Amino acid sequence: MDVVKQQRKSAMLSKNTLLTVGAVLLLAVLLFWATKSASSVSVARTDILIASVKQGDLEVIIEGYGSLKSDKQQLITTFSRATVKEIILKPGASVQAQSIIVQLENPELQQQLDSAKRDLAQASANLRQLKLNQQREKLNESATLAQISADFESASLKEVAEKKLEKQGIVSTLTYQQTRLHAQQLDKRINILKQRMYQLSLVHKEAINIAQERVHQQQGLVDISQARLDKLTVRAGFDGVLQRLSVELGQSLSPGQEVALIGSVTDLIALIRVPQSQAQQIMIGQTTIIDTRRDKIVGVVSRIDPIVADNTVEIEIALPKQLPASARPMLSVDGTITADTLNNVMYIQRPANVKGNSEISIYRLNSDDQEAQLVRLKLGRQAGRYIEIKQGAAVSDQFIVSDLSNLKTTNNTLAIDY
Q1: I need a labelling partner for 366 at 20 to 30 A (CA). Which of 138, 226, 303, 385 fits?
Q2: Which residues pair with 233 in a beta bridge?
Q3: Of residues 287, 286, 243, 235, the one with CA closest to residue 262
Q4: How confident is the model over 173-191, as a mean pLDDT?
Q5: How far is 158 from 155, CA to CA, in rounded Å?
Q6: How confident is the model at residue 11 (pLDDT cuts 50, 70, 90)?
């Protein structure tokens, strides 16, 4: 019985040993597989974008977006309180200088015009009455002068006659002296009356000037009232297109409130926005290509806005006078500015989320195209879709330029699954 018991113990010991060895082997396999999986990173070939390094002349292209604007614009505002009575034209309509856009109304302006016209009529009547009164005064003075002149001539004749009779003793010396004195007095009265008539003419002239000035003032008030009333008929002012209408039917407007914006059709400029980081490379006079989706227009940088908004800078592009039919105000366009030309440099398609003049880690494909190694590149200036390589690559090297931020881990070696 003791021998039997020893055999069972040996069998159990042998079975436990096998189980332990098996568990150790399984654990080793699992650890090896986990270690291998952790150190291996792979991507599908269809999920990545590969670009080759090239060498040659590279134009530094700065791309932006924006729209075409009218170089000549006119903002129309109200001159007085008014109500929108009728909307004639809507945004996008072609207009001429006399085209009516909106009809406003304000009864008070009509009342002011009627009152000004009545005051003008009264001032004109006063002027006519003044002229008639002056004419009557002149006639009275002329009649008086004529009468005194006639008396003077009669006295002068009498003086001459009595002078001869006085020498003959027929007329006394006293009578002759009285006649002579009377003639002299009449002569003085004539001179005084002439001076009076001259001064009266000056007074009449000044009175007429004052009355005419009142008439002119009233006429000015009538013209102003008429002009304010005419402004209720809102016209374009010049040939172009109605770009914006800021009022609605029945809306009450205050003085100076915007009504509409008119822009020219032929004189256009392009306003494009470019990244702030690239704006420092732009200079006035650089050539720009404006893409309207149908045509490409060659323009020149004419102004750089100093204000930064949303990390972009606005660039104004001067366009030629003769533009294709596709160019119209408010049209969304793309702009490509040629800032410089880099001669005989290495470059590659710009990797995702990469800026110029920086250093990056990027995967370079091995010769078998099965794996990619992580290398360090020193980049130069950005040129639109391309970027200069200063150090770390050779011509014809291939790099993965797509975004690999979705990888869970990063390894020096990247496997490519075909």
Answers
A1: 385
A2: 103
A3: 243
A4: 86
A5: 5
A6: low
- What tens digit of pLDDT does each residue of 44-72 get? 888 888 899 999 988 888 889 999 998 88
Whole-number average pLDDT of the chain: 85
Return the CATH superfamily for domain 43-68+265-417: Efflux pump adaptor protein, beta barrel domain (2.40.30.170)
| Domains 43-68+265-417 and 73-103+235-263 agree in fold | no
pLDDT for residue 26: 65
Burial, 77: exposed, middle or buried (Cβ in 10 Å; 0-12, 13-18, 19+)?
middle
Over range 143-163, report the average pLDDT.
Answer: 85
Return the CATH class of domain 73-103+235-263. mainly beta
pTM above 0.90, yes or no: no
Which sequence spans correspond to the domains of the chain?
43-68+265-417, 73-103+235-263, 108-230
Q: Read off the tokens for 43.
A: 């991507």
Q: Which of 191, 196, 103, 115 is CA-nearest to residue 149?
A: 191
**Other Cβ atoms closer than 10 A to 276:** 13
Q: ∠350-402-337 over CA atoms, to 5°?
A: 25
Distances (CA, A) of 120 to 110, 126, 207, 215, 241: 15, 10, 17, 6, 40
pLDDT in tens, 223-280: 999 999 999 999 998 888 898 999 999 999 999 999 999 988 888 999 999 988 888 8
